[in-house]
């Protein structure tokens, strides 16, 4: 089955509810303090309470998307506008006309950088999909006739190593297509393989800035600690913890995979003209983005947009070399027929069609999340959450200063499984607690892999519940949650152990 939508909606489960986070925030309302004469304290004011209520209602609507079929971007975009409108109106009543405007512009700049970065990545993925790159890999795996246990490990390994480049959602959809093609009516294999794919894809995406939105957010934030800047190559310190996160549950689950062989083979699929060159251009685009950021200190999005030009010029080349012959029918009508010079050759290529296929609901949902969380931060709630999580918890537990942020960062992963890693990670970045490089990487790891504990905790899990409907389910995944949680805990201890010099 072809993968037509690689960046799909996270559906009803992008976020479940924000109450766990609010429970951390609300008890500390009385601790609010001023942050300058141009910043009003609204955490214990009706404006703050109204903003929280709007935010919660919006997220409840997102949660109910599966039942209402209301796209998740709509309620959060509306909530973002209402929250900032109320805040801006109140500030204007107190003579601070431009304070809210300046804060919104700052949030918009952060969103624009991330949105354009993701748009380029989505465009390349869509281009590779249209050229049958992913279908070719799927058909090859199906045709090989591997056993269920072999396929369990092959799809897991591929999910882990493809997701750092193609992102965890795209990778999960591709591997799930393989599993469904060979699994047939063996629901037990499909369930276990899908769980393995979700865990592997999320783990693989955690050690690469390109593998997950949360790692991309941390990388683009250009965080500086006492040990230095958390740059592109620093994320690879999470490789071993990510491997542990996936291997621990995979090794345990493999004993439950049926030791059988699937029946039938797969249909051979050929890639279209230019497919391999588009893969090379995508790698060149990644190199350009990293080089722009590391060597000439430009935002990575500038490098990504430069790489989009590579694809645009190559698309122009494909059009110019698109051979057709004109056949005249009845002397007055003409029809264009494709000249089949070789398998899959040549099909007109339009880069803007690939841009149009980007999942705009996801991109606009991201806008709503950034501005909603930014609004709550401007009101003062994130400062309170930061004080509770990153200061009080560590002191209460008697931890050393270097490890005081550990409980909060571990909680980030748990909240990511319940709420969603995007608003949780953006909240942490807005709080900007004073942490070491090791702690920032721990927060990144936790947010990236924590969502694997529930099927609704990550985009990969949500997408697979739709793709393997009835075979990969919430409760089927939940049965293995203790094993996945064991991998989560093991990855945290591994990170603290092997990267102790970063704390």
Write a structural description.
The longest helix has 32 residues, at 99-130. The protein has one domain (11-317, 351-502). The chain contains 22 helices and four strands. A two-stranded antiparallel sheet has the order 1-2. It is globular, with a radius of gyration of 24 Å. It has helices spanning 19-25, 46-63, 65-68, 73-93, 99-130, 133-143, 148-166, 168-183, 187-206, 213-221, 239-254, 275-295, 300-320, 351-356, 360-379, 381-396, 406-418, 421-431, 437-450, 459-467, 474-478, 481-498, and strands at 224-225, 228-229, 324-329, 333-338. Helix 5 (99-130) runs antiparallel to helix 12, helix 9 (187-206) runs antiparallel to helix 11 (239-254) and helix 17 (406-418) packs parallel to helix 19. The two termini are 46 Å apart. By secondary structure, it is mainly alpha-helical.
What is this structure, in a nutshell?
It holds the Pfam family CitMHS. The protein is mainly alpha-helical and 503 residues long.
What distinguishing features does this structure have?
about 500 residues, mainly alpha, globular, disordered N terminus, transmembrane, sodium
| Number of separate helices | 22
Question: How many beta-strand runs?
Answer: 4
| Helical content (DSSP H or I, runs of 4+) | 55-70%
Structural class: mainly alpha
- β content, as a range? under 5%
The description of the largest β-sheet is: 2 strands, antiparallel
Report the order of strands and helices. Answer: HHHHHHHHHHEEHHHEEHHHHHHHHH
Radius of gyration from the CA trace? 24 Å
Give the overall pLDDT as a whole number. Answer: 79
Number of folding domains?
Answer: 1
The largest sheet has its strands arranged as 1-2
Distance between termini? Answer: 46 Å
**Shape label:** globular
Organism: endosymbiont of Escarpia spicata
Protein name: Sodium:proton antiporter
Membrane topology: Multi-pass membrane protein
Family: Belongs to the NhaD Na(+)/H(+) (TC 2.A.62) antiporter family.
């Amino acid at each position: 089955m072809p993968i037509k939508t690689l960046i799909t909606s996270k559906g009803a489960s992008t976020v479940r509810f924000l109450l766990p986070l609010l429970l951390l925030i609300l008890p500390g309302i009385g601790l609010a303090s001023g942050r300058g004469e141009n910043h009003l304290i609204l955490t214990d004011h009706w404006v703050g309470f109204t903003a929280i209520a709007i935010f919660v209602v919006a997220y409840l609507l997102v949660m109910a998307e599966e039942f209402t079929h209301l796209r998740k971007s709509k309620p959060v975009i509306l909530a973002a506008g209402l929250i900032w409108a109320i805040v801006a109106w109140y500030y204007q009543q107190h003579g601070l006309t431009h304070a809210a405007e300046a804060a919104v512009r700052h949030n918009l700049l952060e969103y624009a950088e991330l949105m354009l970065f993701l748009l380029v990545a989505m465009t390349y993925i869509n281009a590779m999909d249209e050229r049958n790159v992913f279908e070719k890999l799927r058909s090859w795996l199906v045709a090989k006739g591997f056993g269920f246990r072999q396929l369990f490990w092959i799809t897991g390994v591929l999910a882990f190593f493809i997701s750092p480049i193609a992102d965890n959602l795209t990778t999960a959809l591709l591997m799930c297509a393989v599993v469904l093609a060979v699994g047939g009516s063996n629901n037990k294999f499909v369930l276990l393989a899908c769980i393995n794919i979700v865990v592997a894809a999320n783990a693989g995406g955690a050690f690469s800035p390109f593998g997950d939105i949360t790692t991309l957010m941390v990388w683009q934030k250009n965080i500086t600690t006492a040990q230095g800047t958390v740059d592109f190559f620093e994320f690879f310190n999470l490789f071993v913890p990510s491997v542990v996160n996936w291997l621990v549950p995979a090794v345990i689950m493999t004993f439950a995979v049926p030791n059988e062989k699937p029946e039938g083979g797969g249909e051979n699929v050929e890639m279209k003209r230019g497919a391999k060159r588009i893969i090379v251009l995508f790698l060149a685009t990644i190199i350009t983005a990293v080089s722009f950021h590391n060597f000439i200190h430009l935002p990575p999005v500038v490098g990504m947009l430069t790489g989009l030009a590579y694809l645009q010029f190559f698309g122009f080349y494909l059009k110019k070399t698109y051979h057709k012959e004109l056949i005249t029918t009845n002397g007055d009508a003409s029809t264009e027929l494709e000249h089949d010079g070789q398998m899959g050759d040549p099909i007109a290529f339009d880069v803007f069609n690939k841009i149009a296929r980007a999942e705009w609901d996801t991109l606009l949902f991201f806008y709503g999340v950034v501005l909603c969380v930014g609004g709550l931060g401007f009101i003062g709630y994130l400062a309170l959450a930061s004080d509770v999580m990153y200061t009080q918890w560590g002191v209460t537990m008697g931890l050393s200063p270097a490890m005081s942020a550990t409980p909060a960062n571990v909680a980030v992963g748990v909240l990511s499984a319940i709420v969603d890693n995007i608003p949780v990670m953006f909240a942490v970045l807005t709080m900007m607690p004073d942490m070491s490089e090791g702690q920032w990487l721990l927060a990144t790891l936790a947010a990236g892999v924590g969502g694997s504990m529930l099927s609704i905790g990550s985009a990969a899990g949500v997408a697979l519940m739709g793709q393997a409907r009835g075979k990969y389910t919430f409760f089927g995944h939940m049965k293995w949650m203790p094993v996945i949680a064991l991998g989560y805990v093991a990855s945290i201890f591994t990170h603290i152990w092997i990267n102790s010099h970063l704390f």
